[in-house]
Each structure stands twice: as C-alpha cells, then as structure tokens.
C-alpha cells in the first residue's frame, strides 16, 4: 500500500510540474511573439506605488493573522499574535511543493510545538483554506459584472461553483459531518469538535477584508511599473482575487505557480496589451514571493527573541 501511495504522490508531483511547465511555455511564447509590441517607453518604476503595494500586503497579512486567531478561538484554543505570526510564516516555503498537504503539515507541526494539537491545528487549517477561497471568490464574484462589460469570457463564472458549496459546509450542520469524515481519512481517528459560528463569521469578515486589501495592493503594484488607469481599480481587485482562487484550486501546481499567472494574463487582457499583462503577472509572482520571504524572516526573528 505504501508503494502505491508513493507512486501516486510521485505521479502527482510530475503532473504538477508538467502543467506548470506547459503554462509557462505558452506564456513565454506569447510574450516572445508580442515582443515588438511591448511599450517599453511606458514602463517606469514609481517607488511611491511600490511602497503602497507592500504596505497593502502587510495590512492584508496582519488581518490574516487575526483571522487565524479567531479560527482557533472558535475551537476554544488561544494563540498569541507573535506566535501566530511565526506559525503561519514558518511553513511558507512548503507552499511551493505540489498540493497543499505540505503547507498544512508544516503548520500543524509548528502548532504542536506551541501546545496546539493536530486535532485543532489541522481542523483550523481546513477551515482557513475554505475561508480564504470563499473570500476570494466573493470579491471576484462581486466584480464579475465589471469584468463582463470588458469582454471577460462568460465561462469564468464556473470559477464561482465552489462558493455556495463552501458556505453550506461552513455554516450548516454539514460542517461537523465533514470534519469527522476528513479526520477519519487524514488523521485516522475520530474527532468531535464544537465550532463557534460567531467566531467563524468574524474570521470570514477579516479574511474578506484581507483579500480585498491584497487586490488593492496588486493594483498599486501594476501602477508602480505601468500607467494603469485609476478607474479600473475595482476591476483589478476582482481580477487578482479570481486568479488567486484559480491558483488555489489547482492543487497539482505548487503554490498555484503558472496557473495563477495564466489566469491573471487571461483576466488582464481586456484592460492591458497582452505583453504588458504577461509582464505584470510575472512581476506579481516575484512581488508576493519576496513579501512571503520577508515575513518569514520577521517570523524567525520573533521566534528567536521569544
């Protein structure tokens, strides 16, 4: 049985890297074909907007930490803000391994060292992932009328399918059944947890605000390198969240790599030249990766000072 699981895991990783490679290849080819159309004279680095973009990421991250505390609180667990910072950022690098299991496992291991058992941390991670996806889909869905007016394909509405499912799972008695089933499959044991709904609602509101601010930060990033119209700020906020959700749903792509960029290019095409959309999508990946590394280093400093 172990050999079969290892073979499936290896096949999943290989498939993930193939998908990422294919997407990157087609994006690079599209950029090469439109190279002569790139408006190089319009690209100018604006430090002010770059600083604003990173300030937005910091604010978004701060709300995410508070949301994690609320999620743990819904199960009667308490974790300090500084500890939560380290626990969240300590498993960042694991996101770039295909699937979400490594990031989840890393967070659970760090939580255990802080006195929070796998029963609570594993459940909390599952709840957090559902809330993160739901919040991004909510913002993307709110902006879809704007995107449709610009010619975004109608089939992107399919991306919203998980949203009502997540709402039903999170805020109905189905949540307890889902948690018990997943515990039997993943943890190989029975668990019984009481989730306080009001804490979950607060966590959702915090994560929705975090996702919205991150979308605004993406707009600031785009404007820091290219003269993007101020009027499309709500459009780009929705675009970023839709691309983030697409990357999250592609569990075979490590960290949504390639899939998120491909979705960004697709959603940005109605607003920007194709070559510009590709460049901004690539820059956004470096932008968020640099931020995550910086937050992880801060988390490491917090851990050492504690």
Written account of the structure:
The chain has about 300 residues and is mainly α. It has one domain. It has helices spanning about 1-35, 45-75, 80-90, 100-115, 120-150, 160-170, 175-185, 195-225, 235-250, 260-270, 275-305. Residues about 1-10 have low confidence and may be disordered.
Quote the beta fraction: under 5%
Number of strands: 0
Structural class: mainly alpha
- From the spread of the alpha carbons, the general shape counts as globular
Percent helix, as a range, is over 70%
Biggest sheet statistics: none
Rounded radius of gyration (Å): 20 Å
Q: What is the element string, with H for helices and E for strands?
A: HHHHHHHHHHH
**C-alpha end-to-end distance:** 43 Å
Task: Name some characteristics of this structure.
306 residues; mainly alpha; 0% strand; disordered N terminus
Summarize the structure in short:
By secondary structure, this protein is an all-alpha fold. The protein contains eleven helices and no strands. 73% of the residues lie in helices and 0% in strands.
Ordered list of secondary-structure elements with their pairings:
Elements: H1 2-33, H2 47-73, H3 81-89, H4 101-113, H5 118-149, H6 162-170, H7 174-187, H8 197-225, H9 233-249, H10 259-268, H11 274-305
């Amino acid at each position: 049985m172990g050999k079969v699981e290892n073979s499936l895991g290896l096949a999943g990783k290989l498939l993930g890297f193939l998908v990422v490679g294919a997407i990157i290849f087609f994006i690079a080819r599209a950029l090469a074909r439109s190279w002569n159309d790139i408006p190089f004279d319009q690209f100018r680095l604006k430090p002010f907007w770059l600083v604003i973009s990173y300030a937005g990421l910091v604010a978004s991250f701060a709300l995410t930490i508070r949301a994690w505390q609320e999620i743990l609180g819904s199960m009667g667990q308490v974790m300090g803000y500084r500890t939560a910072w380290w626990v969240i950022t300590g498993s960042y690098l694991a996101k770039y391994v295909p699937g979400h299991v490594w990031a989840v496992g890393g967070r659970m291991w760090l939580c255990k060292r802080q006195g929070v058992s796998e029963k609570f941390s594993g459940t909390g991670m599952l709840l957090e992932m559902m809330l993160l996806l739901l919040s991004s889909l909510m913002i993307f869905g709110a902006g879809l009328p704007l995107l449709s007016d610009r010619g975004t394909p109608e089939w992107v509405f399919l991306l919203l399918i998980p949203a009502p499912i997540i709402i039903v799972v999170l805020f109905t008695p189905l949540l307890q059944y889902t948690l018990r089933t997943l515990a039997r499959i993943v943890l190989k044991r029975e668990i019984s947890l009481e989730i306080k709904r009001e804490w979950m609602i607060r966590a959702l509101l915090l994560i929705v605000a975090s996702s919205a601010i991150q979308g605004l930060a993406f707009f600031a990033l785009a404007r820091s390198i290219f003269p993007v119209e101020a009027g499309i700020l709500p459009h780009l906020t929705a675009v970023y969240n839709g691309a983030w959700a697409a990357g999250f749903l592609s569990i075979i792509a490590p960290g949504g790599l390639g899939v998120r960029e491909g979705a960004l290019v697709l959603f940005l095409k109605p607003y920007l030249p194709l070559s510009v959309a590709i460049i901004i999508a690539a820059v956004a990946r470096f932008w968020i990766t640099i931020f995550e590394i910086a937050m992880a280093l801060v988390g490491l400093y917090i851990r050492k000072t504690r």
